[in-house]
Sequence to fold (189 residues):
Amino acid sequence: MLRRSSSWVTRHTPGWLALLAFLVFLAFTATVLPRQAASAAEAGAGAGSPDTSFFYSPSELVGMAEAYGPAGRQAYVRARFTFDVAWPLVYGLFLLTSISWLGRRGFAPGSRWRLGNLVPLGAVAFDVLENLSTSVVMIRYPLSTPVLAGLAPWFTAVKWILVGVSFLVLGVSACVALVRRLPAGGNTA
Fold:
């Protein structure tokens, strides 16, 4: 099933779609991301944010919920269901289409490297799990939500690992596709 899914995405990813996803990613990163970071820093009152941490403990998450205060918690949850719905879609589509398009140019059809185009889907899924679990902790505060407070740090860490692996696969795919485009033996004459 993974091979079929990967192959389907690869076959249905034209260059213009990969380019468009890249441009949207750049525009979002340059305009929306800085504004959201500033807004999050203000709402978080210097307590940090689960999204930008690699790992945190359940008690640190609850401490963030306390430090945010009612207005900060409300702003946090609102951001998870506005900005943080769009952002995973933006980076996920960029990584999915770019890796797929480059993979088709760099790797043979049966190569396991082509499966790398599915890694961003895992990153997006864990991002969504992180957002849901941390939002419930924030909404329910001061009530205890131990299961979700315990799972949220793991969702965050796995998200960041998969995002990192996605960019690694993107880099390898780009390098291999570039090398394959070079004339045999490296001669440019």
